[in-house]
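Forum: Protein Structure Q&A
Topic: Joint prediction for protein chains with partners

I've read a bunch of threads here and the consensus seems to be that you should model interacting components together rather than docking separate models afterwards. I'd like to see that in practice. Below is the full input, 900 residues plus whatever partners are listed. Could one of the regulars post the assembled result?
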Amino acid sequence: MNFYLSGLYFLPLLIGGILLIAPAAISRIIVILSSILLSALALYVFIHVNEPLYFTVPHYVNEIVAGADILMLLYFGWVAIQKKSWLVGVMSIVQLAGLLYLLKNLPAGESMPFMVDKLSTFMFLLINIISGIIAIFTLRYIEEENCSAFRKKFFLALLFFFIGAMNLVVSADNLEYFFLFFELTTLASFLFIGFRKDEVSVKNALTALWMNQVGGIAILAAIFFIAYNGYGEITFSNLLAHANAEGILLPLALLSIAALIKGAQLPFSKWLLGAMVAPTPVSALLHSSTMVKIAPFIILRLSPALKDTPVAMVIIGLTGFVFIASAISALSQDNFKRILAHSTIALLALMIMMGAVGTPVTVVASLVLVLFHGISKCMLFLNAGVLERVFHLKQSSDMDRLGESGPFTALVMTIGFMSLLLPPFGAFIGKWLSIETLGALATDKRLLGALVIVAVAGGGAVLSLLYFKVMGLLINRSGEKDHIKFEKTGPYYAGTIYILLGLVLATMAGLPLLLTYYFAPVASATIGQPVPVLTEGWNLFIGTMRIPLLPMLIAFFLLPVTVVVAMFIRFRQVDRAKEYMCGEKVNYAFSSFYFSTDRAIPYFSAAGILFFIALIMVALI
Amino acid sequence: MNEYLIPVLLIVLAPVIGGLVYGFDRIVKARMQRRIGPPLLQPFYDFLKLADKRQMMVHSTHAFLGIMHFVSLWFALAVLLLGGDLILVIFLHLLSTSLLILAGYSTRSVFSHLGANRMAISVLAYEPVLIIIAVSIFMINGSFDTSVVFASDQPLLYKMPLAFIALLLILPIKLKKSPFDVAEAHQEITGGVEIEYSGLFFEAVYTAKWLDYIFCYTLVFLFAGSNILLGIGLVVFTFFYLAALDNSTARVNYKQMLRFSLGVAFTLAFINLLINSLI
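Posted by a regular:
Agreed with the consensus. Here's the joint model:
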């Protein structure tokens, strides 16, 4: 098993190195083959790891990790000087001081730095499959990028380095190692956002950098308090073993803060929105499908200890608020990628919340959301890339008549949006589970439960309005354009989108099976208690919760199938009428409507800051 | 078997009953204005007339979505009457409304677009209130199933009167009655989404409105639990209230509607939820 695992860690690094020097024709083959190989490895590991697998590394790796940490922080400091960003500078100095202090004073215990359990393998599967698909998409996308040949290679190589870092981050048990890998993903984020080197990119990259560095500082502080409280080893598993120890709340709260920042929750949402200036594969990979999923990952990891603590209550309150606030903010957006970013923040909030609630059903819901959101958002973002490259569209209001010029893209995007929203697609079921279970939570924490349900329900309604607004543009066409011809976008674009479409449809069709054999084992390993999933007749039981399948099935025919059929159905022998224009002969620009919700955003941020302060306060008291 | 007889009958006959309710509604409204009004069966005469008309459409996507709006609304109603999950029912209803909104967006017609936009805002106005009412019901019954509500001998009305008032406040939005009929607004945007439908395809959208009556009155009926007399009383009261309101108010614009619904109805439902969750 160690052999396959090390494949997941070293193969991406190796491939990244090769891609830096290999000529374009060869790197194409390498990227495609390695994507398949990594996915296969992840699948193999997922099937074969059932018990948590601890493994140690040679002693000199500790020194390498420490050295890499220091090097990286020095690089951040250099960036700060070069770009004259005092925020990054301050953060780097604080981090460096903290790190050096910890390195000097921490007891060098013989701990196992790595642990691979079901949750890690679940993340492996998501990371490697999605990243592989995006890497293949990138082959074509980056060719059209306006930059030097080396930077194109660098982009691809960086993509694979990032995959390696992600695989490491979900297997780290030692928090010092975790800190390094966490910061490595921050570094990747910084380099990717600043890739285009224009003024806005550099500015947003710096924002992303310092905000995520705050997360890094939180991790260092958590390490400090674990050592200070005398829990012994600085590992996740040791932290969970001390779940009821005195003073546990502070490290938990600090680690949660790191998670919330990585997940771009308010008031730190600005970095993710700014990240949308990066090339589209980056937005797909880092900023929606994989890297931001570190946030729910950390919370799920901690959920056995977090459950029912005041810290968890604050997190639930915060994420409930973020869910509705970012849904409202999304209504004012026109840029398509920014719309997607806002909805990513909203759904991340939902995943984090479910993880923090920590009951069997909510953990399943969180996992379902992580996977389905990963696939659907990836598909939508890649389509945003196609829109940008093939149709030269960036604003959603320009997308009307896409149904005429690009019916296939319009179709796939429609399916993508429905998969985020409506029955029986996974995200919907996740959302429904959330509402139902929070109803259950409300019986002992009734007031909080009630507030959160309001946030989730209200946010859900706002999000549906948002999605339908965009879908309305995609389905729009005039009566004269009845003939449909799918556009040709080339093998890399079409191929990857077909794969993702297949994944969306397959996961959706197989959801009852996936719940039993895929999500339930992961959830029960994560929270350390059995999660029974049963199918009886037309009902699906998760724990004590019943989901009727028959209405779901019919609902499936009613919505997704209806919309797709509606796009392609043609009634013959029905006479045509022109649209009623009240006798006017003006050309009306069909676009969309917006709500000016911008004014509310400072208040949202202020409320977010209050929540963060509350998070620390409840941990201290 | 008997327990299913009434719901199934109601479901099958829903369009007919809805048509009668609509016909009666028109008479009552006319009498309030000291007119005689159309005959009771006028909606059915309209129905027959429409069926006889030459079939016209803007394009098939639009026409098909109208038909599916009717079908999905009927299905949502069926789940509601058969005692299904209330959250599911609300989402199914949202789904059917969404299909009509999509239909509005699918054409290149100005009025259709305006109507769809306004309809989307209407959804935003009433949807959160409905979900809060559902959650309040869950707080009381410990279940989202409407079958539990229908079977309970303690009417919800006495336990959540504020929620009932909130429901009364949003029903005009849902049924497109004045003062909240911005989505349809005949004098202003010539019927909104409906404008591009004609003949057989309009039939679907037209009868869907009848189904919506049954849907809304069933929601009202929920507040009476198993007390049928009280239920009928509530339905009759709501019926006259809606007719009187429709007659006596002028249309507000969509901003005012949204402000009212989220400011007043939402707050009422929310206070009700707080009370229900604290006691």
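Residues 31 and 135 of chain A are 7 Å apart (CA to CA).
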